[in-house]
């Protein structure tokens, strides 16, 4: 019973967080679920390294360039992973929300370019100062790597930095600063704390087994 109550509450919190942070209004229509269009597709796996009482949500935008038209892909918790989902190929922008046990909320926004037949992994994790999210290429479950086409879209308080002003992680300069990517702080809008880099979310043996089986 406790799990059901938390699950329902967690879904509501994540939906409200997404709507509130995007719209800034008191009343919001439900966020529609993502449905991949016909044609070539990739697979999106979602995993969270969160504590009991925390939750995370992964969303994609209809308009990946302008970060408009939010669609819910999956919601997860410490005891539950979202189902693997088919997604469209080509440019996509993902929004990752994390709700902590104290109901603080943070988010990270990435654009990437999934290719047909490949499998991608979105990782979400809570940290002492906020949250962390990354997109990985998990096509080979024994060699999961940062997705080289990933571009951070929320930077310095700007929530949808133009693509022309972003850099792919595959570029040499981005690789040099990879230790700092994918992290957001609570509350949203404050400068990041000057401390050691947060740990990267762990992809466990169970995750690898599930990736191989899908």
Count the E strands: 11
Through-space gap between termini: 29 Å
What does the largest sheet look like?
6 strands, mixed
**Structural class by SSE content:** alpha+beta
**Oligomer kind:** single chain
Approximate shape: globular
Number of helices: 3
Q: SSE string, helix = H, strand = E?
A: HEEEEEEEEEEHEH
Low-confidence stretches: 1-7, 19-27, 187-214
Estimate the helix proportion, in percent: 10-25%
Mean pLDDT: 78
Q: Using only CA atoms, what is the Rg?
A: 16 Å
Q: How many structural units, i.e. domains? A: 1
Strand content: 25-35%
Structure characterization notes:
This protein has 214 residues and is of the alpha+beta class. It has one domain. It is 17% helix and 33% strand. The protein is built from three helices and eleven strands, in the order H-E-E-E-E-E-E-E-E-E-E-H-E-H. It is globular and about 40 Å long.
How is the secondary structure organized here?
Blueprint (H helix, E strand, L loop, with lengths): L1 H22 L17 E9 L5 E9 L4 E10 L7 E4 L3 E8 L5 E8 L6 E8 L3 E8 L7 E2 L4 E2 L19 H5 L6 E3 L19 H9 L1
Give a nutshell description of this structure.
The chain is α+β, with helices and mostly antiparallel strands. The chain contains three helices and eleven strands; from the N terminus they run αββββββββββαβα.
List keywords for this structure.
globular, 6-stranded mixed sheet, disordered N terminus, 214 residues, 5-stranded antiparallel sheet, alpha+beta, disordered C terminus
